[in-house]
Amino acid sequence: MATAQSALHSATAHDDHEHHDNFITKYIFSTDHKMIGKQFLVTGIFWALIGGFLSVLFRLQLGFPEMDMSFLKPILGGWIDDTGALNPEFYLALVTMHGTIMVFFVLTAGLSGTFSNFLIPLQIGARDMASGFMNMLSYWFFFISGVIMFISLFLETGPAAGGWVVYPPLSALEQAIPGSGMGMTLWLIAMTFFIASSLLGGINYITTVINLRTKGMSFSKLPLTIWSFFLTAVIGLLSFPVLFAAALLLVFDRSFGTSFYLSDIYIGGEALSNTGGSAVLYQHLFWFLGHPEVYIVLLPALGITSEVIATNSRKPIFGYKAMIISMLGITILSFVVWAHHMFVSGLNPFLGSIFMFLTLIIAIPSAVKVFNYLTTLWRGNLIFTPAMLFSIGLVSFFISGGLTGIFLGNSAIDIQLHDTYFVVAHFHLVMGSASFFGLMAGVYHWFPKMFGRMMDAKLGYIHFWLTFIGVYLVFFPMHYIGIAGFPRRYYTWTNFEFSSMYTDLNMFISIAAILTFVAQFIFLFNFFYSMYRGRKASLNPWRSNTLEWTTPLHPGHGNWPGEIPSVYRWPYDYSKPGAKEDFIMQTVPLSATPESNLPHEQELVKLEKEIISEEEEVLIANESRES
Amino acid sequence: MYGFLIAIGILLLLSIVWMVYRIQTLVTVVKGSDKKIASGSNKVNAFLFVAFMVVFGALMTWYSIKEFDNYQLPIGSEHGVITDRLFWITMAVTGVVFIITHILLFWFPYKYQYDEKRKAAFFPHNNRLEVIWTVVPAVVLALLVISGWKAWSDITGPAPENAHVVEIMGYQFAWEVRYPGMDNVLGEYDYRLINATNVSGVDFSDKNSFDDFNTPIVVIPKGEPVIFKIRARDVLHSVFAPHMRLKMDAVPGMPTRFWFTATKTTEEMRAELNDPEFEYEIACTEVCGRGHFSMRKVITVVEPAEYKKWLAEQKPYIVNNPSLVADLPTELKELAEISISENK
C-alpha cells in the first residue's frame, strides 16, 4: 500500500513540475527525447507481438501440416479454406510480414529508436536531441508507416507475399501472386515512410553525439552504447537511401511501365513488353541496405550488452578501444559484403570470390568482440540482474549464429546451404534473437530510468530462462533441417523425397516456438504492471557509472535541474584498486580519487582542475545574474 | 460450452499465478532481499547456466550423432565431395570454437558469481591478448577462405567442351527440360514465341532447334560433365538439386548455368542406400508464389551407354508437333521436314 501511495504522490509532484505540458504535447506530439524513446518502445512491443503471432500461425502450418485450422477462421477468414487448410499464398504473406515487421519495426525502430532516443542525451549529458521536432517527426513517420503496414494485413488480396526481400519480378507482377497487388503497394509506401523516419532519427543521433556532449565527454570517454548508436546511425544514413532508390525503381516498374528490373517475361498467358531490365540489379540495391541492416539491428544490441555486462560484472569492459575499433571495422566492412547474399543469383563468380574474402574479414572484429566479452566476465563479480542474463544470452547467440555465418560466407559451402533452413537458423540466432535479447537487456536495465520503478526481477529470471531455452529449442534444430537441404519459405515439404522426413522435429520446433511466444506475456505483464505498481527505484539501482544515473528519478525536460554535470573519466571505472566503492561515476573528478588513480590519470588531475575552475566561474556568474 | 470451460480454467490458472506472484513479492520485501546487491537468485542463475550447458550439450551431441545419416544427404556429384569436405572441416573448426567459448561463457557466471567479500579484477585492456585473438582467427579464416575460394573457382569455372547440355527453364510452378538433341547445341529462344504448344519459346527458325526435344525427367550420364543452362520465364526460381550439391537461380532475362559431373547412377544410389524408391530431385529455392513448394523434377542418372541409347530414342519437338514449323519460310521448312523424316 505504501508503495502505491508514494507512487501517487510522486506522480502528482511530477505533474507540478511539468505544468506547461498538456496531455497531447506530453504523451502524443512530444518533442522530449525520453517520451519519444518510450513511444518507440511501446510501438515496438506492439509490433513484436504481431510479428510473433504471425510466426505462430506459420509454425502451426509447418509443425502440423495436416491440422484443421478452422478455429482460426474468426481472425483469418477466407485464408482458411473449407477443409481447414491454410492458403499457401497467405502462408507466404505470413513469412513476408513476419520478416518485414521483425527486421524493420521491431529490431530497427524498436531497438535503435528506443535506446538511441532515450540514452543518447542522457548518457552524453545533453538537454535533448539536437532537433526535438525532427525527432518527433521521426516517430510519427514510423507510426504512419506502421498504420499503413497494418492496414495491408487486412486487404482481400493479402499483404505483400514475396518474402521480406520482395525480389522482383514476383513483387512487381500482380499476376504472379495476389499479394503483389495492393499489398505490395502499401508495403512500398510504408517502407518509404519508414526510411524517412530512420533518416530523420539518424541525422539527429549523429548530430547530437557530435555536438551536444557535455564538458569533458570526449569521444574516448563515451559509453560503448553511445558509440554503437552513433555508428548504427551512420550505417543507416548511408544505406537506407539505397533501399529507397530500390523501392522507387520498383514503384516505377510496377506502376509506370519501366523495365529497371523486368525483362523477357511471359506470365498469365501473355508476353510482357518489358525488356532489358535486370532482376539482379534489385538484389544488389536491396542488399546494399539489407546487409548493413543486419548491423543496424545488431550494433545497438552489442552496445547495450557492453554496458550491462561491464556494470554487472563490476569490472571495466575489456578492451574498450578494441571494442570501438571492431565496431568501426564492422561499420565499414558492412558496406562491402552485401553480395554474399547473392552467391548463386547468377552473379559473376569472380565477384563472388571477392565478396567471400570481404565477408570472412568481417568475422574478425566480431570474434574480437566475443573474446572481449568473455574476458570481461573473467574474474568479475557477477550480479545476475535480468539485464545481465539477457546480455549473456546475447553473447551465446552471437557466437552460435556467428559461427554458422562462416559456413554461409564461404561461397563453395553456400551453394548447398543457400536458402535452406540453415540460413534461417543462422540469422535468427545471430541477428534476430541476439538483437531481441539486446532489446530485452536494455529494457530491464533502463526501466528504472524510464519509469522510476523497478521491474520484478524474479519474473525477469523466469522470462529469461524460458526465452533462452526456447530460442535454442526453436533455432538449433533448424541447423539439422538445413543441412538436410530443406528449403525456406516452403508451405510443406512432403512433395519431395529428400525432405519428407523430420516431421517430428518440425513439430517439436513449432511447439517450442509457441511456448516461447507465450512466455513473452510474462514480460508484458512485468513491463506494464511495474510501470505503475513496481517497486520504486533508487537513483542508481545498478550502481552504474554513466551519466543517466545522475539525473533525478523522473528527469523532466532538460534532464538535469541546474547545470549539466561535467565528465572527468571513462565510464568503466568499476572495482578500481584503492577505491572505496566498486564503482566511480563519470562525474567524479580524478582529483577527488587520488587513492585509486592510475599513474597517467594522476597527470590528468592538473588539466581537470582547470576545467573545474572554469565551471565554478560559470556557476558564480549564473548565481549573480539570478540575484 | 468447451470454450466457456477453457476460459474459466485459464482464468483460474491466471489468478493462481497472480497469487503466487504477489506472495513472492511480499516475501521478498519481508526478507529484505530486494535491498541486497545479489539475492539468493544469483546462485540459482549461476547454477542454471552450467546446468543449461550440460543438458543442452548432451542433447546436441546425442542428436547430432543419432541423426547423422538423416541430415547428411548422400552425395551424387564430384564437386559435392569437395564442398562437403569443406563443410565438415569448417564444422570441426567452428565446433571447437563453439564448445570452448560456450564452456567459458557458462562456466564464468558460476565461478565468478557475486561475493561481497571479493572485488572484481581491474583488467581494462591487454594488447597482447587483443593481438592474439585478432591474428589467430584471421589466419584460420584465411585458410578456410582460400580452400573455399579454390573450390568455388573450380566449380564455377567454364564447363568442359564435351559437357552435355540440358536446358532447365523455371516457370510457375514447374520446370521445363529441353535437350539440344544430337548436335548438343540448343536452338535459340525468344520469350515472345511462348504459347501453349511452345512453352519454352523455342525459335524454330534456328536450325539448331530442329532436333531439340523436351522430356518429363532430366536424364544425364554418370561420370561425364553435364551443364545445366538455366533460365526463367516469369519470376525468379532457383534450381536446387540437393544430392548434387547444386544450386543456381533462374532469372528471367538473364540465363545462368551450372556444370557438374554425377558420380553415381540412380540404380547405384538405390542399392547403396537400400532404398528402391530413391530419386535424385530438383526443387525450387527462390520464393516464386503459390506453388513454390511443389516444383519437383526428377533427375535420373544412367550409365553413359544407356544415356546414348535413351538420347537416340527421343523425338524432337517438331516430330511430335509438325505444326511448330508450319509457318517457317519455304527453304527452312524443307530442311525441317527433312529433319522430321530423319528422326521419325
Automatic annotation (TrEMBL), chain A:
Keywords: Electron transport, Heme, Iron, Membrane, Metal-binding, Respiratory chain, Transmembrane, Transmembrane helix, Transport. Pfam families: COX1 (PF00115). It is a multi-pass membrane protein. The lineage of its organism: Bacteria, Pseudomonadati, Bacteroidota, Cytophagia, Cytophagales. The chain crosses the membrane at residues 40-62, 90-120, 140-167, 187-212, 224-252, 294-310, 322-344, 350-371, 383-408, 420-447, 459-487, 507-529. SUPFAM superfamilies: Cytochrome c oxidase subunit I-like. Its main location: membrane. Belongs to the heme-copper respiratory oxidase family. Residues 23-592 form the Cytochrome oxidase subunit I profile domain. It is found in: Membrane. This is Cytochrome c oxidase subunit 1. InterPro entries: Cyt_c_oxase-like_su1_dom (IPR023616), Cyt_c_oxase-like_su1_sf (IPR036927), Cyt_C_Oxase_1 (IPR000883), Cyt_c_Oxase_su1_BS (IPR023615).
Automatic annotation (TrEMBL), chain B:
It holds the Pfam family COX2_TM. It is a multi-pass membrane protein. One of its GO terms (biological process) is ATP synthesis coupled electron transport. Residues 161-313 form the Cytochrome oxidase subunit II copper A binding domain. One of its GO terms (molecular function) is copper ion binding. It comes from the Bacteria. The keyword Transmembrane applies. Binds a copper A center. Its EC number is 7.1.1.9. It is an enzyme of class 7 (translocase). The keyword Transmembrane helix applies. PANTHER family: CYTOCHROME C OXIDASE SUBUNIT 2, CYTOCHROME C OXIDASE, SUBUNIT II. Belongs to the cytochrome c oxidase subunit 2 family. This is Cytochrome c oxidase subunit 2. It comes from Rhodonellum psychrophilum GCM71 = DSM 17998.
